[in-house]
Amino acid sequence: MGKNYIDIENDRGEMLRYRKHINGRGLIAHGAKVHPSAIVESGAYVEPGVLIAAGAHVGRGVWVESDAVIGQNADIAPHAHICSGAAIGAGAKIGVRTQVGMGARIAVGSLIGDDETIADNERVATDRKGLRLAA
Fold it and tell me: Which InterPro entries match (predicted)?
């Protein structure tokens, strides 16, 4: 049986230890909290301070930066990038290769399409078809 963690050096020369999540084998940094029922697929990185709620799904190749929050049953499609301090509401869906900026807030149940960029500190709410609602 192979080891269940990997050490990676960050940009500042510090070594960070990541463990493989039981559901999906994605890499979870020490200091992140991921509910056991969440799925973090292989190739995804979850940085320190992140909170991922029950039933959330983090796709292959997703990068969730420090202090971000992923709500219950949220779905993050492959290769998305969730920046530091961003919050994804419960049941929200984030599309393939979409970037959610630092401190951005995605409302509960919102649908963000593929290849979109949500600006830093932007607040977004959509209907079930992905049409943006007035803030």
Answer: Trimer_LpxA-like_sf (IPR011004)
Give pTM, 2 decimals: 0.91
Cβ pair 3, 21 in contact under 8 A: no
pLDDT (mean) for 12-25: 89
* Dihedral angle computed from the Cα positions of residues 46, 49, 55 and 57, in that order, rounded to the nearest 10 degrees: -20
Q: How far apart are CA 77 and CA 64, in angstroms?
A: 12
**Alpha-carbon distances, residue 84 vs 2, 36, 100, 111 (angstroms):** 31, 22, 9, 20
- In the prediction, which pLDDT does 7 show? 86
Task: Write the CATH number of the domain with boundaries 5-124.
Answer: 2.160.10.10
8 A C-beta contact, residue 5 and residue 18: yes
Give percent above pLDDT 70 in the chain. 96
Domain residue ranges in the chain: 5-124
Average pLDDT over residues 18-45: 94
